């Protein structure tokens, strides 16, 4: 047993020494990555302890010299890649590791992997004219909210939504002389009235300072941003107010994009992982851990910025959620863009 441990220490030491000048070749494709990792002959028997994220080598070649080539050929959807969108680029992050011992023991060698691609040109919702959705202005800023069609190619032409289908809610803040701002949905509720009263019955959608509770109950999520000043809530329709007029009330907040904390964030629940994820930086998803309890600000800089933030209450509606069989009966409810608006 002692000899086995001693041998393991030698192998780790040899690997760390040779890995310092590791021969690693990374080729990034549109939705995948191909990595060739050349290892020493001493490490060939231990190739099963090499990982790309959670994936073992897809192939191992033993060269005539006795050295080895560990090949990793995987899609970004595999191996627990982290996806991050910034501006016009998409970043996929992961790590190559050598783990002589199983988790939770730390890896003895870590090599970061990053693939960067240009974000596809997609339709960017234009700012609406005053008659079709401007929700208001604060401090020289103009807030907007609207319902998009299913393809995200324009403003919806109907307010009738079949139960269980998705209604993409788009919100944006128009800024001119301000520094770039991050738009957040701090709180959203559904109600059957365009105005909320102290005793109004509401259906919570986003609460606890940016936690999308509908992502826990259903399949709602935040879509990747095309710009920091806009956000799309991909909201799955629900039974609340079924067949009635429903209004979505949201508190929109324009915030410093460099200051994210527990009180200023956009989090949705990822069922595949069983955890909350931060829209704007999955690596900081720990800020979302409070979504199951109470979220409060812990950032000193965030507290200082609070007095300089801008917020506005927007109301979108009316929307009519129907059973699929009832959709045709509501054809008379089809509205033009000018009818489906954000109330001041």
Outline the structure in words.
This is Zona pellucida glycoprotein 3f, tandem duplicate 2. InterPro entries: ZP-C, ZP-C_dom, ZP_dom. Keywords: Disulfide bond, Signal. By secondary structure, the chain is mainly beta. The protein folds into two domains: 95 residues, Sandwich (Immunoglobulin-like), CATH 2.60.40.3210; 183 residues, Sandwich (Immunoglobulin-like). 8% of the residues lie in helices and 40% in strands. Strands 11, 13, 14, 15, 18, 19, 20, 21 and 22 form a nine-stranded mixed beta sheet that branches. A five-stranded antiparallel beta sheet has the order 9-10-12-17-16, with no helix packed on it. β14 and β15 form a beta hairpin.
Give a nutshell description of this structure:
The protein is mainly β and 344 residues long. 8% of the residues lie in helices and 40% in strands.
């Amino acid at each position: 047993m002692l000899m086995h441990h001693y041998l393991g220490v030698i192998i780790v030491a040899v690997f760390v020494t040779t890995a310092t000048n590791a021969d690693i070749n990374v080729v990034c494709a549109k939705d995948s990555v191909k990595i060739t990792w050349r290892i020493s002959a001493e490490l060939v028997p231990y190739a099963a302890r090499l990982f790309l994220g959670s994936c073992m080598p897809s192939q191992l070649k033993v060269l005539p010299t006795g050295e080895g080539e560990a090949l990793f050929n995987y899609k970004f959807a595999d191996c627990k890649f982290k996806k991050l969108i910034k501006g016009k680029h998409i970043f996929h992050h992961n790590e190559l590791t050598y783990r002589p011992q199983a988790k939770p023991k730390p890896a003895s060698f870590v090599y970061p992997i990053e693939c960067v691609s240009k974000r596809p040109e997609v339709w960017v919702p234009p700012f609406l004219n005053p008659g079709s959705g401007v929700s208001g202005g604060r401090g020289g800023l103009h807030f907007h909210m609207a319902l998009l069609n299913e393809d995200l190619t324009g403003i919806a032409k109907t307010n009738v939504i079949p139960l269980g289908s998705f209604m993409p809610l788009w919100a944006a803040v128009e800024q001119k002389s301000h520094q770039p701002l991050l738009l957040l949905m701090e709180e959203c509720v559904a109600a059957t009235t365009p105005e909320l009263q102290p005793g109004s019955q509401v259906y919570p959608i986003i609460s606890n300072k940016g936690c999308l509770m509908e992502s826990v109950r259903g399949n709602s999520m935040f879509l990747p941003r095309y710009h920091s000043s806009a956000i799309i809530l991909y909201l799955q329709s629900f039974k609340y107010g079924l067949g009635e007029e429903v209004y979505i009330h949201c508190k929109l907040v324009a915030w410093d994009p460099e200051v994210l904390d527990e009180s200023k964030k956009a989090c949705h629940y990822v069922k595949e992982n069983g955890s909350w994820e931060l829209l704007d930086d999955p690596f900081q998803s720990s800020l979302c851990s409070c979504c199951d309890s109470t979220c409060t600000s812990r950032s000193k800089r965030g507290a200082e910025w609070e007095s300089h933030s801008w917020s506005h209450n927007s109301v979108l509606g009316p929307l009519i959620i129907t059973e699929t069989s009832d959709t045709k009966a509501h054809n008379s409810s089809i509205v033009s863009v000018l009818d489906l608006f954000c109330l001041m």
